Amino acid sequence: MKIFTIIYFIGIFIEMAIRAPIRRAQRGDAKSEQRITTQEKTLLGLLFLAMFFIPIIYAFTNWLDFANYTLPAWAGWLGVAIFVLALFIFWRAHVDLGLNWSPSLEIREKHELITKGIYKLIRHPMYASQWLWVIAQPLLLQNWVAGFLNLLIFIPFYFLRVQAEEKMMLDSFGEEYKNYMQKTGGVIPKF
Question: At CA 86, angle to CA 80 and CA 40, rounded to 5?
Fold first, then answer.
């Protein structure tokens, strides 16, 4: 495996390690509301496929070799830098959000609106980290399928999910969330 492919998989394991303690702590937590649709489940499954399973096929078989391309080394290292930034934002979002994090559209019984830390700058840092991830992936996994499939699936997921999430937050937190929306950007800070 190439160094950039190894770095990609190290990033996958770092991301799993960031989420693991929160998932354990949330077991058995009561949810006051869930808005999980079949569409969301399907897109989450496809994202897992494009982010994890297809890269494994790319790394450990020759099945996708027909779609390989080669970039200069600096492009791979740029991918590493973007990837590290994505992981940092992902980590910071989880630290600031704590047990309020959910993999899907859910509100927990003791859910709080978090507006501190990275959430003081942007409302959706996890999506910001995912945008960076899908930009870095084709620089690290230099294959038209393994590199770009995650981006192609993330684009519709992002637009559908953020719209539903914003509606749920407005329904749950009302005017407080509306004021928060006016002060902060979605995935890019307001200046």
Answer: 125
Interhelix angle 3-26/73-97, nearest 10 degrees: 10
| pLDDT for residue 31 is more than 70 | no
Q: Grade residue 78 by pLDDT with cuts at 50, 70 and 90.
A: very high
The single residue listed with the structure tokens 């969330």 is 177
DSSP code at position 50: I
CA 124 to the chain's CA centroid: 10
Decide: 153 and 173 in contact? Cβ < 8 Å.
no
Q: What is residue 25's predicted lDDT score, i.e. its pLDDT?
A: 83
pLDDT higher than 90, residue 39 = no
> Domains in the chain, ordered, with CATH?
3-10+37-100+112-183 (1.20.120.1630)
